[in-house]
Write a structure and sequence with these properties.
The structure is a single chain. This protein is mainly alpha-helical and about 120 residues long. The radius of gyration is 18 Å and the shape is elongated. The chain is built from five helices and no strands.
Length: about 120
């Protein structure tokens, strides 16, 4: 694993960013289908919707919500980086933009994940 990560560091940061963008896009697609399926349960009335949502109250699902936050942040900031490059940002700045997007993403993630974890997983 360390060799794989080292391979995509430095000059291969564009390839790593590409893989992250594709993986997060697929994960968001899976979430979209789950979301639509849950909303579809509204058609069966309030009781059917309550049964569909009952599984979402578990601590495991709350951890998956925190993971969803990370996926959304990674996908959004990497998409912003790609847009900046497409709009004319220097191609040489790609590594710096990738590092910036990861750093900003980590800060945004922590700002959202810590309160989510404390309130919904630990119940504080």
């Amino acid at each position: 694993m360390k060799l794989l990560l080292r391979k995509y560091a430095g000059p291969f940061s564009g390839m790593l960013a590409h893989l992250i963008q594709r993986a997060t896009g697929l994960l968001l697609l899976v979430y979209l289908f789950l979301h639509v399926r849950t909303i579809y349960a509204l058609r069966g009335g309030p009781a059917a919707f309550d049964r569909a949502v009952a599984g979402f109250r578990s601590p495991l699902f709350k951890l998956l919500e925190i993971a969803l936050l990370a996926v959304v942040i990674l996908h959004a900031l990497n998409g912003l980086r790609i847009t900046l490059i497409d709009l004319g940002a220097k191609h040489a700045a790609q590594r710096r933009l990738f590092a910036w997007s990861l750093g900003a993403g980590a800060l945004i993630f922590l700002a959202g994940a810590i309160p989510l974890f404390l309130s919904s997983v630990l119940g504080r």
